[in-house]
Amino acid sequence: MMAKYSKNIYEQMVLAAKKAYPNECCGILVGKKSEQSEIEVTEIREAENQFQGQKAVHFKIDPLYLYHLEQELDPRGLEIVGIYHSHPDCPAILSKEDEKYMVPGLEYVIMSVQNGEVVDVKSYRK
Ligand SMILES: [Zn+2]
């Protein structure tokens, strides 16, 4: 089951991936989740890749940033529904680490960026 998102949101994610290249980009998918666990993405938030060191192969989002974002979204009836990140010069498949840290119920969008262009986008859920 794939999350629903508009072409505009898709383009924003692609732009973020291209901009961060050759490093990984990462960000938050914001939206709504139905009782049937259907996800609708209404906006995205770029997050700073806090990983110190090889930013091309890892990403890390500040937990405090997520906490503040949740507090901001809650009164608007929105929530964090997923995470997007890019794989520079690697396929859009989950790395061992991605798999290990996946939170059940969240949508994970991975973009493969080759030579600065997004060539593949895939979504995963645990
Ligand atoms: Zn990854």
Number of distinct beta strands: 5
Query: What CATH first level would be assigned?
Result: Alpha Beta
Report the radius of gyration as a whole number of Å.
Answer: 14 Å
Fraction of helical residues: 10-25%
Category from helices, strands and their pairing: alpha+beta
Can you tell me the number of structural domains?
1
Alpha-carbon distance between the termini? Answer: 11 Å
How many helical elements?
3
Q: Name the hetero compounds present.
A: zinc ion
Architecture, CATH level 2? 3-Layer(aba) Sandwich
Shape: globular
Q: Tell me the major beta sheet.
A: 5 strands, mixed
CATH domain topology: Cytidine Deaminase, domain 2
- Average the pLDDT over all residues and give the rounded result: 91
Protein name: Mov34/MPN/PAD-1 family protein
Pfam family, one: Prok-JAB
GO molecular function: metalloexopeptidase activity; zinc ion binding
Keywords: Hydrolase, Metal-binding, Metalloprotease, Protease, Zinc
In short:
24% of the residues lie in helices and 34% in strands. It has 126 residues and is α+β, with helices and mostly antiparallel strands. It has one domain (7-124): 3-Layer(aba) Sandwich (Cytidine Deaminase, domain 2), CATH 3.40.140.
Give short descriptive properties of this protein:
single chain; 126 residues; alpha+beta; Cytidine Deaminase, domain 2; five-stranded mixed sheet; 3 helices; 24% helix; globular; binds zinc ion
Please give the structural blueprint:
Layout: H1 7-20, E1 26-33, E2 39-47, H2 63-73, E3 79-88, H3 96-100, E4 107-114, E5 117-124
Parallel strand pairs: 3-4
Antiparallel strand pairs: 1-2, 1-3, 4-5
Bound molecules: zinc ion (ZN).
Zinc ion (ZN) binds next to strand 3.
